[in-house]
Amino acid sequence: MLHRTLLAMCFVIGGLVSYASAETPESALGRRIFEQGIGRDGRQIGGRIHGNVFMRGQAVACAACHGKDARGGGEAFVRAPDIRWHTLNKPFAPRRAGLPRPSYDQATFARAIQQGIASNGVQLEPAMPRFDLSQDETAALVRHLQTGEWLPDGEVSSKVVLGLLPASQSERWAQELGDRLHSCPSSDSLAGFPPLEIIPYTDPPDALTKLAAKISEGRVSYILAPYIAGWEDQYFEAARDWPVPSLLPVTPLDSPAHPNFTFSLPGLGSQVVSLLERGVSGRYDVLTVVRSEGDLLSREMLKVVRREARMRNVRLDEVTLERSHSIEKWALWLILAPLDNVAKQLRNVRHKVNRTALVPAMFFDPAAARRIEKQMPGIAWQIAYPYVPVNTRTGRWRSPLEAWAEAGCALLAKIGEEHPGGVSGQSSIVLESGLTLSNAHDDMSRRRQVIVAPWEQRKALQ
Question: Model confidence over 267-280: pLDDT tens digits?
Fold first, then answer.
């Protein structure tokens, strides 16, 4: 099985997630704060109202004013608003002469409950307590408000979209993805977003068991962005027979050509083939392939490379980092190992003019690339990305997390629109970044989605 940490490498990087099944310590803390005013380690949280009146515990519990269902309510002349996260996360137009209220995110929510300042910068009512919550307590409260129990009005019996993320808090990339899917920017669609429940799992069998139980209830419409890096075969084998499709699987590999797996970003195999199509093109007769001995993923990709090399009549010079004291002098490299590891093996490489390195984005490291350039000035980098790497409006480089979250939110918005035949019936979806999510399952369509772009240190620093 692939190491789960592989995904962090995959996206060249280096939450607030609602749990639909088993309650985690974090979600339990959020529920206690909401219902009882009890914080971390059993302490009574405090809150100050009307400037100088201080109260603790049950007296300042959210449910006391906003109701057990968080829908809001009235007490005397004060009416508490609906604070379900899907409500807070929607922007509201100005009322009479007032200012519009932008949607809340994690930062503005924390400011509201701690300092009494709304998302539009206006002071909240003095009857709203200013709480003494810590950062982790605030995060736990948000998680509770994001739970799938808070369904929009009229949607109690509607179908839900399931997410799937590892429960471990060490998987920060996955947790942050869950945060962003729960905080999607407001959609132009009047339909809004469908209810989203994210299921935590401890291991693959736990994930498959929980998913099967939820699907059996008959209320699941789609599975969105399931985080399956490292156990793809198990997931794909089980999901083939489910009555709901999986959208945008989070994995470095290509999804199988099957109607139950749609709108996938191109995997490593598609990226490698695209690099070879761009980099070889009849100009080279030898390709140096650099990989790590113990990396199962690079070993699988080597099979793809050998097949493509035979088709192109290109001879392979296969280099295993752990067994080689140096990398040969050939002009074209394909890097299938972390670039930082490659940089450590380049002490004995003689400089050759016009050397080109082809690197899938998951293995690329700008800092390592700069160290290599000091030793071999003039090296040309070609990087394969499964998404549009640069914001076309701002010119800023986008992280893999941004790309995956943008795609996930776009799919949620489309699901909310309830197109005939469902979102799976659409051939493609164009994202704001310029990326086109394709519903096609053939290899050629996937390769067309890959972005192969040069990397230059000077431009990257700018």
Answer: 999 999 999 988 87
